[in-house]
TrEMBL record:
Spans through the membrane: 14-34, 60-81, 88-109, 115-137, 174-192, 212-234, 246-266
Residue stretches making up the PDZ domain: 281-358
Protein name: PDZ domain-containing protein
Keyword Ribonucleoprotein in record: no
Species this chain originates from: Aceticella autotrophica
Keywords: Membrane, Transmembrane, Transmembrane helix
Amino acid sequence: MILIQLIWMIIKDVSVSIFSPLLWIVIIFILIQYRKNIELEREMLGKERNSLKEQILDSVFYGFAAGILGSIVMVFLGITIDNIGIEYVFPLAIFLMFINPRYICFSYAGGIVSIISLLTGFPSINVAGLMAVVGILHLMESMLIYIDGAVNSIPVFVQTDNGKIAGAYIMKKFWPIPFVALVTVSAAASGIDLFRMPEWWPLFRTDAGLNSIIYSLYSIIAVLGYGDIALTEVPEKRAKVSSRRLFVFSILLILLSVGGIKYILFRWAAAIFGPLAHEFLIIKGQRDEKEKKPMFEVPDNGIMVLSVLKNSPAEQMGIKPGDIIVKINDMFVNSEEDIARVLSTEPSIVWIVVKESDGNYINYEYRNYKGVKGIGILIVPTYSDKVYRLNDMENGGLIKRFFDKINKKK
């Protein structure tokens, strides 16, 4: 009963975060990023599949859900965030964002602040508590990526090392994370809802020998981001691989942070492991995509489907990214011009022969007695003027673009 009351208190405190100015700053940042996503999507598909409002609401919903779950985990473990230096971490994360949007992740800012604190003693912060919070945030992120990471991924054309064009998907998601964590307060503090917790709690005690400690819930606003490119597999599969790797990273970082409660060596390990291991995961993911064979390439026969438009005839038939369309109405097709030629008479019935990625052939049929003008797909072309180089897909921030412009003028 006590735990249920505590969980309800956590839900209420997280919900109240909707009135926090910091949360709205984070949402505005996400809105700006999603506007860029929509501009790219319109360039590739002609229109966005989901509106800006829908994408923002999606991120806010999952962000709040993750914040509640992460808060419960943090309170359950009894990890306090006394003096963790969030007032230093948040501004640094915003600054790093301008170098590269993915650096807004607290692994980088948290690790930098922790290392400086360990080296110089300023700021004087609870490094173990800070890196534990970072670990739990990434635990939330791994779950968000698994559930929501592939949603609204954007199809693009890229030029591979051999000079050929391949299809790929850019996955760029952000979630505002309002959560609450424990802080110790004076026993004389008033206006606090008091609960007598079970004897086993907290699992990790930071104040050995003290039997009477009063904890309070403290609200924090964070933002989590996921940036990746799916070149050798579909976005859903790519996101799940990234999620599993990040989950392992999170558990290791939490364990190092818990060890840092008593031992300074573990504090150093957590502070260094956080940013370096996180960057390693990103670099490894990018390298894996470059070294493997692209999934979406121009086939010898037929046309490769890269993306299917929402509510289109192709979606209604069940055509998927990675399928190869071989025939339409008994005519072989090898280009967009072939499709346009077949549909120029606006037939009321369309038969499509599709070769799936496993080699099986499937026949689809679509009927519209007003006439079929298009089937709603984006294919991998042999040539396009909308091609990105893989080495340029890092999407640097304002600072990087500023120096790039200076270098071009020299």
